[in-house]
Amino acid sequence: MARVRSVLLVDFDNIYGATGDDVVSSIDNWLLWLEDGALSHGQKRRSFLHKRVYWNLQFDRFRPDFERAGFEAFNCRALAKRKISAGKSSADIVITMDAIELALQTKKLDELIVLTTDSDFVPVVNRVQHPGLRVVTAGKETDPTYELYSQHADAVIHIAAMKDAFNYARTPRKWYQLRSPPPVVAPLTLQRERQSPLLGRVRAALATGEAAGSSLASELLRAADMVKALGERMPDQLLSKSKIVRTLTAIPEFTPAYQNGIRPWLGHKNFAAMMRRLQQIHPEIEVKTLGQGRVEVIYREPGDRPRVVRAEAASEPAPTRTAADDDAPAIAGLSPTA
After folding, report:
1. Do 157 and 17 fall within a single domain?
2. Do 204 and 128 fall within a single domain?
3. What's the pLDDT tens digit per position in 26-54?
4. What are phi and psi of 113, to 5 degrees?
5. Is position 126 within any domain?
6. What is the H or E stretch that residue 179 is in?
7. Count of domains in the chain?
8. Residue pLDDT, tens place only, 287-335
9. 36 in a domain, yes or no?
C-alpha cells in the first residue's frame, strides 16, 4: 500500500502550551502515531518529506530532541522590542510562508499537517487546500478551535488524542496481516456533542430537500443552499473545489464521478458547469472563469455585489423629476417615489 506523502509543520509554542513537556519527551511516540496513519486518508501510513518545528528562542533547548527525530528547527524570535519583552515570536508568519511554499513547490505532495490550535491559520488552510492536497490541523475540544477547524480542514487532531498518542506503541501485526492495525484516535472528551452552525444549516438544507422530493431540481436547490451556507462562514474568501465537494457529499445523490448509475456533478458536465448552475439559484455564489475548464468560487454578501442595471433601462435616460411631480397623486397603487 502506497504511503501518504506528507509535510509536518509544528507550531511549538502553541502545542507546548496545550500539552506540556510530554510533547518533547514522547516525540518518537506521537510521531510514530502519525506515521502509522492516524487521521490519514484511508488510514494509510505516512512518509514525511519535511518535518519542521518553529519556536521562540527560549525553547531552543529542545533542538537536540527534535533534530534526533529528523526535524528541522527554526528560531522565530520577534523583532519588535515590545514583542520580545512579551515573549512573542514570529513563528506564525514563518509557518504561513513555508506552508504556502511547500504546498506549491513540493512534487506529488498528498497532505500538509499544520500542528497548531491557533485559529489565525484558518486562511492558510483555505489557501493551500486544493484537489489532491489534504490539510490536517489540531484543535482544542474545550474551546471553539476544534469546531472551527472541523469546518475548514480535512481532519483535526484534538488535544486529547494528541496526549493519548504520547504513549503510542505500534501493535505487532498478526501472521496473516500485511501491516499492524492502524492507530486508534482517542475520542473527544466533551460531555456533549458540539454541533457547528454550518453543519446545522447543512442538515436543515437536507431536511428541506427531502421534504420537497427527490427530483434533480430539489437536489440542485439543496446543493445551492449548502454552498451558500459554506460561503456565509467565510465571505469574500476562495471556496476550494475540495471543500465544496466535501460539503456536497452529504447529498446521497451527489458524486464527482460516475458511480452506481448516478451521473456526476448532479447531472452536469463538470464542476464548473454545476457551480454556474448553483450561481443561478443563489447569485451570491460568484463563479469566475479562469480558463482551461477551471473556475474560482467566492461567496459575496448580498450588499457587496455590484448592482446590475437592465440594458433596456440603461439605454433610455431617466426622466427629470420636478416639484410638480412630487405633488402628483399616486396612481394604480404606486407611490410618488416609485
Report:
1. yes
2. no
3. 999 999 999 999 999 888 999 999 999 99
4. -105, 120
5. yes
6. none
7. 2
8. 988 877 788 999 988 765 544 444 443 444 545 554 444 444 443 444 4
9. yes
Cα dihedral across residues 1, 68, 169, 17: positive or negative: negative
Q: Which amino acid is at 297?
A: V
List CB contacts of 259: < 8 A, sequence separation 6 or more: none
Do 202 and 290 fall within a single domain?
yes
- Please state, in angstroms and rounded to a whole number, the distance separating the CA atoms of residues 216 and 221: 9
Domain ranges, residue 253: 197-304
Q: What is the Cα–Cα distance from 225 to 219, expressed in whole angstroms?
A: 10
Domain assignment present for residue 290? The answer is yes
Please give the average per-residue pLDDT across 177-203, as a whole number.
66
Helix (H/G/I), strand (E/B), else coil: 267: helix
**Burial class of 62 by CB neighbour count within 10 A (0 to 12, 13 to 18, 19+):** buried
Which of 189, 194, 133 lies closest to 162, judged by CA? 189
Residue 316 is assigned to a structural domain of this protein: no
- Residues 159, 29 share a domain: yes
The CATH number of residue 77's host domain is: 3.40.50.1010
The x, y and z cell numbers of residue 45, run together, are 501510513
Tell me how long the chain is. 338
**How many other CB atoms are there within 10 angstroms of residue 161's CB atom?**
22
Query: CB of 237 within 8 A of CB of 298?
Result: yes
